Amino acid sequence: MNKFLEIFLGILTAMGGFVEVGELVFSVNAGVKFGYHLLWMVALGTVGIIVFGEMSGRIAAASSQPVFYFIRQRAGYGAGLLTLIAANVASLLTCAAEIGGIAILLKLLFGGNYFLLAFITLIFLLLVVWFLSFQAIERIFGLLGLMMLVFVVAAFWFGPDWSAMGTGFIPNIPTFETSSDYLVYAYFAVALLSSIMLPYETYFYASGGIEDGWTPNSITENRFIVIIGFTLGALLSVALILNGALYFAPLLIEPQLPGTAAQAPAFLFGKWGLILALLGMFFAFAGAAIENALTGAYNIAQFFGWNWGKYRVPKDAPRFHFAWMVMFVLAALIIFTGVDPVEVVEYSIVFSIVILPLTYLPMLLAGRDKDYMGPYANGWLAGILGWAFFVLICIAALAAIPLLIITHGGRG
Amino acid sequence: MSKRTTHFWIEVVLLVLITAGIATAFLIDEMQPLNKQDIKMDASDLRSFAAAGRQLLDQQQKGQLTQTFFDSQASLLKEKVRSTTEALHDGAEPAAERDRREASNLAAQLSAAVEDLEAGRSNGSSLGRVLEELKLKSKQLEDRLKNE
Amino acid sequence: MSEHHLDIVRQVLDRPIVDANHYNCGKVDDIEIGLEGQPKVISLLVGNDLTSDRLPEFARYISRKIFGRRRVKIPWSEVSVITDDIKLAKNADEYGLDERQGFIYEFISKLPGAWKK
After folding, report:
1. pTM
2. B9/B24 same-domain check
3. Which residue of B has its CA nearest to C57?
4. Which pLDDT belongs to residue C1?
5. Does the CB of B135 have a partner CB in chain A at under 8 Å?
6. CB A265 within 8 A of CB A274
7. DSSP 8-state assignment for residue B90
8. Of A3, A22, C58, C63, which alpha carbon lies 20 to 30 A from B69's?
9. Which residue among C24, C107, C108 places its CB closest to the CB of A306?
């Protein structure tokens, strides 16, 4: 019974942690601009994150060693350091975007000065990560993030065209009037893929597995959680696209503020819909901020061989703890410059997909290494899917920056 | 020079060239006058902002939002409109100048409307109509520029 | 891997070092090999002096400027067990590899709750 509860909670946590500010903004806007047409990319991205999430979890369970141990050993110090810096810059930008998003949400809930709220957010995050255990953080933010299910209910309420939705899940390219529309479509496809497969998710998941003390026996549990949890999480993404297509599109609104999305449930359910949506977003964004700061710290400590983990007595892992605090502070400083968090999100998403091949390749190589994984190395399915997605990611990575520039960040 | 020193200086020069190259590209882009494409994007932003303002007002009047949300969202919207208004003050290419002025005009009207929105001056139903009209006019401009 | 054969590149280099209490002491950044007579491993080397050497020239320069040129030598005789990591015979501080010192440690250890759990 206890095992089932563990898995159940794990699934809910994975689901609640699926959405973060970048995904929210891009999903809603993808729905506004392209209706149901990009649903296939959500499905594709979800399969991708399931493949790599399962792989990273399995690597952690089988070897009790996190991915960055392997990166340095096999790729060498120089290449490993480059991967480390790239992954941490991506996490830093994402963390900054989340903090900015949280500050905006707090302003919408309670009013007040944006910068002061960003500062309060920083203090809040520092205190939460310092004082709460890893498991408590995982559970609280994952489960409370499920308040975003109000968007799923709203999507149903708005009445989607089910057959059109079905066709949307099949990869398609709609016909457009101008060639620039095709490029914007491609840009959104790449951005959606990136926002679902953000690098920190697999690193955090693997390190988290070690924090939770996984052994090879945990591999099946890991599979359940990843497959069911991430699929349900993708539901939230789909719901956001539908909210965009069914509510904002007819009104000709392309939400450029994160809080605007909450107006959709507000329309249907009034103030309670609004508050649920805003709170759900708060916990989802905060969870993502925490995951990114911790990922940065995990990566650095694991690369240099320092002591790490929230399971340790804090004073025995001083550099690890200092590292995640520095991540939060630097992320907050980015927000204090006054840059629009939605712009930061844009850059973090594009940067993340550009470095995604760099961060996923070591994982793929570790997963198939029998010296490392013993009998738990990639089977034929994980192998084929892993390499297929790797090729897809490489294509997306090459296209990302040109598309960003040509489409002026998806605006046309 | 030893091999090490040679490599060092090659790397420094490469870094400087790349950074200078990117910085120059940015600067050149910033200094370009607005073309029809740029104005179309600004018009589409204005359309979106006007629509958002309209909807915000509508939902507030129907009691679907909290006062705090309305105030904060209106103020954030005002910021966005202001930034687009400023962007439209830059010089435009000769061919696009007429369009720039039209867009700038709409931006100014939208700025005023959003000011009213934030201050709670809904003037009965007229603010709603003003925002709706600005949304449609911006859309017309946007569509026209798209097809040119 | 076998008992009679140690691949020092794959099984020692860049592997984590742990002390007698299984406390992390960094990674094997370099290996000192004696080439007089029969080649043999003299010591393990840890520190930025060694790792910065593995970077391209400009990065090496910046790395040394910021992080210094520290190096710690661990005689091969101090290695007690090699499995997935390199276990040493004594405690970390006896090799100068204990991270529980310096201003970061001072700061973290003084925070409330730092010694709990």
Report:
1. 0.95
2. yes
3. B8
4. 46
5. yes
6. yes
7. S
8. A22
9. C24
